[in-house]
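Fold it.
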Amino acid sequence: MATSGELSNDATEVPYESRYHRVWSDATRWDNTAAQYDDAVGRSSRAAAAHLITLADALHPFSVPSARAIDLGAGTGSLTHQLAAYAPTLPILATDISPGMLDKLMSLRSNPATSNISIQVTDMAAPVGAAEAAFSHVFSTMAIQILPAPDETGTLAQWARLLTPDGIVAIGMWDFDENCGPHALWAEAAVAVDPCYVNPPLLPPRHWTGCAQLRAGLEAAGFRDVKTEVHRIGFDVGKEGFMRFFWDSGNPMPVDRQSSFKGDLNKVRMEMERLLDDVYDGGRNIPMSAALAVGRKPK
């Protein structure tokens, strides 16, 4: 877990973007949060992944000859497992920078004996070891926002390299341009305790925040037949589930928020519990949206 101030915006410290990348790209941190990831973040990710799978199948059916999929930044398998159930004969390679996440993914298989899922530890920004033109479908859900400007830095070109001719990418990400309930809930609680508190941006500059940037980035990278939509997924995990996620899971997002607050976090915690009860229906109505996109390999 990040130490206090590790992701603060103090101008005398390491620049925010550098600290952000250090925390969010640290495989050990994701290993440590893997056990609880599926309980909260995984629930919302699964809702986005289910719809993304249908969009991908509509653009490029999984029944095409020699179809094969790769899931980049698969985490605990929010998309991987649903894709395996949706297309039982489709070979799927799930990749992640965190061995702990992939171990959790494999432990969640519904039927290991007949599973079509294999795994590989690799960085989604440069997925070495994955053969060129080996996949009809390249998926990534709730991961690409860790990377700065993936259209400009070559990440999307790397993903396109993995695709067969006319293969597609299918990408889901948190839409922070819409109402991001967990972020808003934290800010409401923190400002109630310290009216001078300023909530830092969720992402550094050059990281995609919503659907418009996702679409523009794919088109700038040359992807064709791009289709996008905003899908309401919610973060409706209940009061206890949200409190565990925010205070106990070690997920980098809440760790980042907590480290930016210099006052009494116990008071913030109590105010958050009150807000969950009084404003967010006991944690059963926390708004959250996903930006989803599919696009065909560049010519």
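Strands lie at 69-72, 92-96, 117-121, 135-141, 163-174, 224-232, 289-296.
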